[in-house]
Amino acid sequence: MSTLNHEITRHFPLIILIGRPASGKSEIIDYLQHTDPEERLNRFHIAELDILDDFPMLYTWFEEDHILENEFGKPRLHTYPNEDFIHEYLWDLLIKRLELEYQKRVRDIPAYHEHTTTIIEFARGTEHGGFQQAFQQFSPSFLQTASALYVDVSYAESLRKNRARYNPDRPDSILEHGLPDEKIERLYRDNDWKAFSSSDQNHLQIDSIQVPYAVFENEDDVTSGTPGLLGDRLEGCLNALWANFNSD
Hints:
By secondary structure, the chain is of the alpha/beta class. The chain contains 12 helices and 6 strands.
């Protein structure tokens, strides 16, 4: 549990938002960003939003490698021409980068968490270590401040929504990027969430640290075009998570 005074803050300091690709994570964030701030605080325990997502980071690597190879005639640094990572440890580097960006905000912005909820967003499949491996990269102090929200969809639903949202004219877009079928199957078909969360229905166990979590069920896709249903379901999930966060 965080050391912050929750009676004063009334909001989550830090939420790790995870799930399969195209599960609805970015749509949840978009919904919260467009919710009236007072309603957002009262219904969802979410203050001013600060979003950290690893997708823009990895897409920058794609762009840099394209420039290096095609404009400078230099070796690619991060990815092969098919955009697979050259080194598997780069998945862990992305997690370290997310925490680094977070820590710089805490350092540089006075009373950061008195007025801010940070949301950290990413997806992981077991092919590159899964959620268990990803959470191991966070520092103990980070995890002690965090809660986790898992957006639960099947692989089939992830594949369907990945196809539906993809806009080839905006491959760098948070809400419109997608993966080829072959790549999403290889990287994300297998998912370790159930194994990772199986030891406790309220907490993820990372070494000696327990991180409170909740699950947002989205197989019926309430994150696409049904803001009322999305809001009601999210309110229930985050209120349960808030109670869990404050229970220790």
